[in-house]
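Sequence and structure are kept together here, with a separate record for every protein. An example record follows, reproduced without changes.
>
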Amino acid sequence: MVTKKKMTLTFYQNLGKLFYAIAASDGSVKSIEFDKLKAFVKKQWLEMDAIEDFFGTDAAYQIEVVFDWLNRDEEPDIKLCYEDFISYKKEQSHLFTEDVRHLILKTASSIAHAFSGINKSELIMLAKLDIELKKY
């Protein structure tokens, strides 16, 4: 019998932090990057599971909510956003199946490429993320 991993609101919230850190790593977040994230949430992340937030909305939308909240903040700490995600990943490593890790990298890469291709700061962060996701 195959058991399905149950995601949590915190899982999706930490993804929002990660994807924000990727988008903001070059010093600004472009609307096209947020649009790309929303497309991935709608087409990929909503299919992950059926968990809902307190309002009855699919929990995957927490990715967008946290991303948008951080984007509206005066000076969010990009490094802390990334580190929060990594800490969560280490604490909840059982949630990060091969498919989930692949989708995280695919989403992050797509965000990074959304505006004028990938730049050095995004490339470095993506490489660090790739290495981190390969650890169990």
Remarks:
- Residues 9-134 form one domain.
- DSSP finds six helices and no strands in the chain.
